[in-house]
Amino acid sequence: MMKYLYAWLLAIVLFVASNRAVAQTNTLLLRCKHQLGDAILQLHTQQYRNGFDEPITFHMLKYYLSNIVLTDTQGKEWKTKNFIYLIDENDSTSKCISINVGNLPIVAVSFSIGVDSNLQTAGVQSGVLDPLKGMFWSWNTGYVYAKIEAQSAASKAPTHAVSHHVGGYLQQQNALRKVQLTAQIPIRENLVLVADLQKWFNSVHALPIAQYPVCHTPGTLAMQLADNIAQMFSLSKLP
Amino acid sequence: MKQTCCILLMVIMTVLGVGWINITYKPKVIAWIVPKGWPKPTYRFAQNRLTEEGVALGKTLFFDPQLSADGTIACADCHQQFAAFTTYEHSLSHGVGNHLTNRNATALQNLAWQSNFMQDGGINHLDVQFLAPLTAPNEMGADLEKVVQYLQKNSRYPLLFKAAFGDTAVTTQRIGKAFSQYLLTLVSYNSKYDKVMRGEAQFILPEQLGYEIFKKKCVSCHREPLFTDGSFRNIGMTLDSTLHDVGRMHITLNAADSLKFRVPSLRNVAVTAPYGHDGRFYSLYNVFEHYRNQVVGGPTTDSLLRRGLPLSNYEIGQLTAFLHTLTDSVFLTNPQFGGTSFGTLKMGNHPH
Fold first, then answer.
1. Does A180 touch chain B if contact means CB atoms closer than 8 Å?
2. Which residues pair with A88 in a beta bridge?
3. How far is residue A33 from each of residues A29, A91, A180, A195, B249, measured CA to CA in Å?
4. Do B135 and A138 touch (CB under 8 A)?
5. Tens digits of per-residue pLDDT, B282-312?
6. CA nearest B38: which of B310, B265, B316?
7. Would you tell me which residues 81-140 of chain A have a C-beta closer than 8 angstroms to some C-beta of chain B?
8. Peptide bond into A105 cis (omega under 30)
9. How far apart are CA B190 and CA B270, in angstroms?
């Protein structure tokens, strides 16, 4: 009889312990949401106006998010499973990243837009860094950190293209940007990372389409665009 | 009972079969040897172990014109073994659809000692090098995704990938590693010069005199034993008004690098005409003539060449004799490199 009692007690202890373990780790979803001002980005079909009143229709938006770190109210840091993610507007699964965190609310999020230089000098990479993903310069080794393909009547480039490929890791061409965001109210539920594409063209630097329709190399323009891109992000809680 | 036995036997055979498949992946490792007295290679072999199967895959890819956009141009078409893997008698190489490239194809030799690639040094690792000529619209013009699909659907490539890497998966990373494995085997170290240095042969008088002149006037950039110091220099060639090729500056965006190009190795130089980054010099004589009479002194012209490089006719004669000792016929005709038979035959059906 005692045997059964012990077994019963053990089962209870295990149950409580496992429950506790569950309570200590919490999976949180980080969702990327792309907007122009308050309007949600829609590829191909919707025309928007940027801060210079230039019309623009987007066909592609892709960028690398790396080294994502969430900080909770006690200052403990939580990292994503993978070091780097490729966010693609056209692929909804890519826009949702799950992160294991503790049971305390999150107060800050930091990440980089781009690819660490040590991943750019070590030969062909795999996964989201496979050159097949279209985010790689072959003539001048390096990753495109963020890119848009769009069209605008304001662009004098062939087919009125707006084509910005932003990257560069060499000294004086470095387009990797770190972004640090704090939540206004500590977040327990899922996080939404809002990127406002208005700022792509106009925030730190004023880069009207008429003047800068194309960026296909590392350098000054790529670094200016990178400064702007880093300003796009803000944190909000799912409504 | 019979049924149980049968099932048991099937299970045993499956287990053995799976084991056998795993055991069969035993690629033959190639011992890659640094020639005596040569510096340590820069390529990290530990991250891409050379095997016979990997080299075979790389070689097959190198000679396959189906990788290009219209199935006409293989790597080997612009990198011909008998010309030390340059394009024989071509100033600029030819790409798909009657395109001309912007530069003279460089020799592919001793790449393990090179830390960046292309004449402007824009490519930072041998494993990623293949992506540039493969996808450039004026070279092979291919779409990487289509190349991977072609290799996956082909009847023999999946087996070559399996032999080289353990399973049939075709990935960009594996393609790059296979290319590197093949290219790393292209080591030229058996020229007459090498034999003289090893004490296996002797220079004849003009060669010896040429070597002395070489050591006085050329060796500071064309450093032995690789016959390049790997640096980028402006040797005073004028900017071609159709190509607008500023060389290294294209990569660094630094005006101080304008018109600088990689110092080419002089190994096998006698068979790699034409010369210069755009192949504007048709013979060695044209190159010597440039050095002694045509160097243009600009802001980035190399300090060693500000006043040109004085060379007498006599010196040019002796230097030419010496440069011919850098021709490595073992390298140029090595059947293992695969370019000695069908590489040359293919010339017939490609409109070069």
1. no
2. A62
3. 12, 12, 17, 6, 39
4. yes
5. 999 999 999 999 999 999 999 999 989 999 9
6. B265
7. 120-126, 130-132, 136, 138-140
8. no
9. 15
